[in-house]
Amino acid sequence: MTVDYHVHLEEGPYSFRWLERTSRALRHFHGNDEGVHHRSWIQTSHSLLSDRLEKGPYSAEWLDLYLKKAKERNLKEVGIVDHLYRFVETRDYFEHHMDLSDTELGRKQHRWLNQVMTERMADFVRFIESQKEKWANEGIVLKLGMEADFFPGCHDQLKALLDAYNWDYVIGSVHFIDGWGFDNPDAIDQFERYDLDALYARFFGIVEEAIRSNLFDFVAHLDNLKVFNFRPDERTLLPHYEKIAKALVETNTATEVNAGLFYRYPIKEMCPSDTFLTILANAGVKFTTSSDSHFPDDIGMYIGENTEKLRKLGIDQITTF
Ligand SMILES: [Zn+2]
Ligand SMILES: [Zn+2]
Description:
Blueprint: E1 3-8, H1 16-30, H2 39-55, H3 60-72, E2 77-81, H4 91-97, H5 104-116, H6 121-137, E3 141-149, H7 155-162, E4 169-173, E5 176-177, E6 180-181, H8 196-212, E7 218-219, H9 238-251, E8 254-258, H10 260-264, H11 274-283, E9 287-290, H12 303-312
Parallel strand pairs: 1-2, 2-3, 3-4, 4-7, 7-8, 8-9
Antiparallel strand pairs: 5-6
Helix pairs in contact: 1-2, 8-9, 9-11
């Protein structure tokens, strides 16, 4: 069965690059590439964008594009998530755990948080719930999820935030080490400040704590620290890989094969890496598959390939939630 359990509707910051990418997605579906770069073309592109911006990410018109592509790519189940940091209700949580100090990194991250924290959780929940029946009528199960950032020691505060709504599933993600958002291209210089072996040990320690928190149905992109190609010789990481596999099995927590880093980031590699994936599969870890798409034209990306890859490793049953 082909499923995509990690799909986003929107993500800031709202730069001209974001506008361009959103426009590309709209043109993909509206076939507006005739007379490209003519005045009438830019006028139509502008009007599509304008409509999209006015209606926002939680609009049937926008989600319908995901539905259209999901059908084309033959998906049977789709889970829509948003990042926890998108929601204004979570401000205290992120202010507590992120480095927002009066330093270069702190100021950068403070600006970023204000740029991306734009939504209300109730609007997201209500919207996805309202669309489930339409998707069911088209033969696809639509699920409501949340991608929650995990920080060491955050258990009670995070649990209280998640308990407010009835999620079909919750993804646990590590995007921060000691308050630094390591996947933010704006803060990439921080990698130079760390010893890579120590950094990876710290990272996998946090991932293990996330798994053992029992707050999550699956833990996402297990080795996303490699995003910008900063990684020690992978042979030195094998003990960490074994430790993560053990934690997933012992807590009966699933993970995903996530294509996001493969088609959107410098590393151009799936999460987990082939070596890591083999260790996890041999240990009996449960897997789902995900595109980590942030635009409707990317939903289902590499799901077929990754489902087949798992099958070759003896995993016939893709986990759903
Ligand atoms: Zn993520
Ligand atoms: Zn994601």
